[in-house]
Amino acid sequence: MNKKNIMAVPKIYFYIVIAVCALGIIIGSFFDFDINVALANKTDIGAFFATYGSYFSYCLYPAAGMCIFKGLMKKGSRYRMLAWVVLVISYFMAVYYSNNYNGSKVRELFGYTAGESSTALSFLSWAFWVVLYAWVPFVCYRIFDDADTGKLIMTGAAILIAGILADNTNLWLKQVASRPRYKYLITLEDPVAGFRNWWDMVPYLAGSNDNFKSWPSGNMTIASMMFSLPMLADVLKKRSNAKNMICFVVAVVFVMIYGYNRIHMTNHFLSDVCFGTLITYLIFSVISTAFLKSRE
């Protein structure tokens, strides 16, 4: 592991991401509501991206699973069962999270109505996600390098564990804050009166009410997983620092578009977006650094 790198890119980029998130939080702390008034405007293309954009992030789960699978298979036959179990779990995670967060849209696509339609349609919507991720492990098996099994296994494990931890941390913080979403506020007679800053927390007011789960952005937790893309590029058979940087730029662009989409679609405020990104990025940075350092 290059000690000057974090998540397979130079440390300077780590500090830049942290600084941008911090700046967004500061600006949002003063102008959250005004920014949403200026930018919020639901569109069909925005709704499409909000539903299917997370697909690219969730591809990281089966990719990470293949890292572990290929590393364990190289170690010998006694690890074969463990390798298959990890791969299946990682694949299931991608399908489960996609169906959990966006399954309702896909079920609508197949014409499923709960209590009225055939259960076969519900199964079909689940199978849709299964098929959608099928290419990932096959491609990754061909392009990942198993010469360094320790690095391969630790990279996959770091991505899987950090992803689970980030998602659950986000769910907990949403309950702690219970901040009203902008899309809920604009249904009130006085939206400004109902607005609360991110630090004006009312713990566990949200419960199961999605209208009070604005902070931090869960979708940005998902989108920010893309910052681990350079780590996967770093275990390719034909790897290079240039490829790592290209993956980092792709991640930055994706996260920025996703962040704008969350504000544009009236789901979140700027501070929600920046906190969601910051929390996930820090979790991935710490866990990946710890795992890859221990591999030495």
Explain the layout of strands and helices.
Elements: E1 5-6, E2 9-10, H1 11-39, H2 44-52, H3 54-58, H4 60-75, H5 80-109, H6 119-132, H7 135-143, H8 149-177, H9 182-185, H10 191-194, H11 218-223, H12 229-233, H13 241-264, H14 270-295
Antiparallel strand pairs: 1-2
Q: In words, what does this structure look like?
A:
With 296 residues, the protein is mainly alpha-helical. The chain has one domain (5-295). It has helices at 11-39, 44-52, 54-58, 60-75, 80-109, 119-132, 135-143, 149-177, 182-185, 191-194, 218-223, 229-233, 241-264, 270-295; strands spanning 5-6, 9-10. Strands 1-2 form a two-stranded antiparallel ribbon.
Main features:
single chain; 296 residues; mainly alpha; two-stranded antiparallel ribbon; 71% helix; 1% strand
